[in-house]
Design a protein that fits this description.
The complex is a heterodimer of chains A (319) and B (301). Chain A has 14 helices and nine strands. Chain A is of the alpha/beta class and 319 residues long. In chain A, strands 1, 2, 3, 4, 5, 6, 7 and 8 form an eight-stranded mixed beta sheet that branches. In chain A, strand 2 and strand 3 form a beta hairpin. With 301 residues, chain B is of the alpha/beta class. Chain B is built from eleven helices and ten strands. Chains A and B meet through helix 7, helix 8, helix 9, helix 10 and helix 11 of A and strand 4, helix 5, helix 6, helix 7 and helix 8 of B.
Amino acid sequence: MNLNFLEFEQPIAELDAKIDELHHVGKDTNINLNEEVIKLQEKCQELTSSIFSSLTDWQISQLSRHPKRPYTLDYIDMIFSDFEQLHGDRVFGDDQAMIGGLARFNDRPVMVIGQQKGRDTKEKIERNFGMPRPEGYRKALRLMKMAERFKLPILTFIDTPGAYPGVDAEERGQSEAIARNLYTMANLKTPIICTVIGEGGSGGALGIGVGDRICMLEYSTYSVISPEGCASILWKSADKASEAAEAMKITSNSLKELDLIDIIIPEPLGGAHRDVKMMGKNLSNVLEQTLVELEKIPVDELVEQRYQRLMQFGDFETC
Amino acid sequence: MSWFEKLLPARIRTDGKSKHTVPEGVWSKCPVCQAVLYSPELDRHINVCPKCTHHLRIGARKRLETFLDQETREEIGTELSPSDPLKFRDSKKYKDRISQAQKNTGEKDALLAMKGQVHGIPLVACAFEFKFMGGSMGSVVGERFVRAANIAIDNHIPLVCFSASGGARMQEALFSLMQMSKTSAILNRLNRKGLPFISVLTDPTMGGVSASLAMLGDINIAEPNALIGFAGPRVIEQTVRETLPEGFQRSEFLLKHGVVDMIVDRREMRERIASLLTMLMNQPVPGKQALAVVLPEDDAD
C-alpha cells in the first residue's frame, strides 16, 4: 500500500505503479511500449474521474489533509514573486505554523499570510502540524495592520486542523489572540481575500479568515470542529466521523450553496496534489480576477460591504 | 427497619411521611463545601455560597434580573428563535434538542439581552443561559448579541455581557463559527462609537465564545474560580499528554497571565461595574446618597 495515496485512491496508485513499471521496462529493453502506456494512462484518467465524480464528504475531508497536498509556501513559490518573509510578533516569538510576508502578485505588492504544515516529521514538528499559537495570530495581526498602513491587499491561505490546544497557548491567551484578529479584520481598510487551501479548522482557521471574499479550493473543507471531534462528542464515537462530516456540510459545494463562502476554485482531476502547477494557475487566476474586482471599490465602501456581509451570517426564525 | 426496631417494635406509630413536608427545592447543597443552604438565603447571595463563597452557576434571567435595576428592564430580540438550516441529526434531531432545551429553560435560545439601568446608569446587558445546550452560540445568540449592541449604539450607552458557554453550537456547524466574526465585528463598531464594552466571564467560558466576544471587553472581568479558556482541559490533556497544572484555566490563572483585568465577587458586580462605567464614560462619581438608596438592605452587612 502506497502511503502517499488515500484508501480510495489505491486503485489509481496501482495503475500508476504499472505505468511506471512499463516505462522502465520499455527503457531497459528498447521495446516500444508507448501504445500500452498511453492505453493505461487513459484508463487511469477514466478511473480517476469515475472515483472523483462521486466522492463522499468524508473522502473530501481526507483529501483536504492529503499528505501530498500543496501547502501555503508551495503556492507562494508558484504564484508570487519577491517573497520576503517577515518573522515574529514582536512580543513573544516567531510561530512557524503561521507564516507571512511581503510579496508581489502579478507585479503588485501584497501581504501574504497563511498557516503552514510540514512535509517530513522534523518539519511537521517545527510547524506544529499547522496549529498556530497566540504569537502566530499576533504576527498575522501585525502584518495585516502593516498592510493596511501601506494600502496593500491581504491574501490569506487557510490550512490548519485548528489553533493549538496546549498549556502554553492558553497561558498566552489563545482566545484573545483569535478574537482580536476577528475584531480587527472586520474593519481593516484594505482588500482581504481569504482562501481555504486544505483544512479550515474552526476558530484557528477563522483567525485569518475574515475578509471581503472567502474562497475555497474544491476539495478543501471548512468546519466548526473536525468530523472526528464532532463524532466523538455527538455520536460518542470517533468512528462516526463520516456521518459527522456529512451532517456538518463542510465541503466547498455545500458551503457555497448555504451562501457561507463566495468562490469555489476548481482542482485538477484527482485533486490539487495530482497537478500542482495547474492548481497554482487556477488559484492565481481566481485571485487576480477577485483582486481586480475589489480594487475598483472605494475602500470605505468595501469595509461597509464586508461589515454588512458579516451581519448577515446566521439562519433563524422571527415571529 | 433497623435491628433495634425489629427487636423492640415501637409502641407509638408515627406516619413516616410527615418527615418530608419540606417542599422540594428549598434546600440545596454547595458542591464545594457541602454546606446545606436555604434557597431564599442562596437567592439573596445571588447563588454564591454564603459559607465558602463558591460561585454556583446562575440562570441568565436571574442574572439579568439581579444585575439590572428593577424598573426600566426591556427585553431585546424576543422575536428570534432558532431554525435548523442543516436539518442536523446525530443521535437526536437538532429540532428535538431545541424543543427539549426550550422546555427545560423556558428560554428560546442561549442568550438573553435586556436594556435597563444599573444604579441609574442606562446600559444594555446580555447573559448566556448555560442550561440551554451548554450556552452554545448559534445564529440566534449571534443575532441577539448584535441587536443588543446596536441598541447600545443607537442609545449611546454601554454594553455588558455575562458569558457562560461551552463554545460553538455544532448542530449549526459553520453558521455557528461565523457568529464569532459577526459578534466581533459589531464590537468593533461599538468601540468606534466610543462606547465601553465590559465582558464578564463566568463559569465556564470556552471555545468559540471565549475566542470572540468574551475576550474583547475594554475591561474583562472574571468571576472567582471560573473555567475560562480556548480548548477544553480534556482536549489539552490528550494533546500534550501530561497532567495539567493545578488551577489551570481558572480565573486566578487568567489574572496571573494577564488575560483578565480583575476577579470580582458576584455580589459586588453591580457596584463595581457601575463604578467602572462612570469612569470610562467620564461621568462624575455616582452620588453616594443615591447609591445607598438603591442598595438592598440585606447587603448592608
